[in-house]
Amino acid sequence: MRLANKTAIITGGGSGIGQACARAFCREGANVVLFGRRKQKLEKTAHELAETSQKLGSRVLTIPGDMTRSEDLDRLVHETRNTFHRIDILVNNAGLFKGAPLHEISDDQYDEMMNINMKAVFQLTRRVLPVMMEQKGGNIIHISSILGIIAVPQVAAYNISKGALNQFSRSIAVEYGSYGIRSNSICPGLIETDMTADLMKDEALMQEWSKGYPIGRFGKPEDVANTCLFLASDESSFITGTVLPVDGGFTAQ
Ligand SMILES: NC(=O)c1ccc[n+]([C@@H]2O[C@H](COP(=O)([O-])OP(=O)(O)OC[C@H]3O[C@@H](n4cnc5c(N)ncnc54)[C@H](OP(=O)(O)O)[C@@H]3O)[C@@H](O)[C@H]2O)c1
């Protein structure tokens, strides 16, 4: 098993990409900690994973909480350490996607986007790093976006937040490599999840957008989860500071 004896925190682990990562990590033997605001979603995912984790001798822990509340982040790190005594992998996946013309984005809307997609990630990572430094090893994976590499109209705050996240990931890689800590960003293209469900109802728009994907389809949560599993495993032990598109070739053009 590729993640035996590893403990992984996955933010936003109750849905979409985070949930697919939880499934992949659990299958490979990791203890998985699911964090997010909706308790029911976390518990449903944990219930689904219970049989596999029991069989493999690992555990799934759910910790409901809000990324933007520092006391919730403290509790997440504290409870994970209390239960598993280590944090080997942190998947910074929780995120918000909202759009509006740039000149109409209010200060509050900008703050909300940056607080969830960047500031909270900074704050959680800052809490996890000392644990990884003490262990002399760790692995941090950020679920960014192709919109952290390229920009599209109507989502300026999102573009900025994911661009900053990629730079944050590189900062960790160069500053903590000597502790055996790796940090990488995954940049998905359009993936079929709750976040994009409304968008995807617009068939004409999807028809148009699909032309931008050389591979001929949009992505599935598992496409991102498989990449995340590779980056979380020792198979990628010489890879750090990368910004990796998982986008069916969208950004290759
Ligand atoms: N789907 C795409 O096309 C796509 C493309 C590129 C990048 N991404 C990125 O992929 C990541 C996952 O998105 P997804 O597509 O899987 O959509 P999703 O199913 O809506 O997942 C978003 C997750 O973030 C959690 N979350 C949001 N705000 C939070 C907060 N304040 N505190 C704690 N958790 C919070 C949500 O859980 P709760 O609501 O329960 O808190 C939810 O589980 C996001 O960072 C997104 O930007 C998605």
Please give a structural write-up.
This protein is an alpha/beta fold. Helices cover about 45% and strands about 15% of the residues. The protein has one domain: NAD(P)-binding Rossmann-like Domain (Rossmann fold, 3-Layer(aba) Sandwich), CATH 3.40.50.720. It is built from 8 helices and 7 strands. A 7-stranded parallel β-sheet has the order 3-2-1-4-5-6-7, sandwiched between helices. Strand 5 (about 140-145), helix 5 (about 155-175) and strand 6 (about 180-190) form a beta-alpha-beta unit. The structure holds NADP nicotinamide-adenine-dinucleotide phosphate. NADP nicotinamide-adenine-dinucleotide phosphate binds near residues 36 and 67.
Describe the structure concisely.
By secondary structure, this protein is of the alpha/beta class. The chain is built from 8 helices and 7 strands.
- What can be said about the biggest beta sheet? 7 strands, parallel
Enter the CATH topology name.
Answer: Rossmann fold
Bound molecules: NADP nicotinamide-adenine-dinucleotide phosphate
Strand order of the largest sheet: 3-2-1-4-5-6-7
Termini separation (Å)?
A: 37 Å
Q: Percent helix among the residues?
A: 40-55%
Show unreliable segments.
none
CATH class descriptor: Alpha Beta
Round the Cα radius of gyration to an integer and report it.
Answer: 17 Å
Q: What is the global morphology?
A: globular
CATH architectural name = 3-Layer(aba) Sandwich
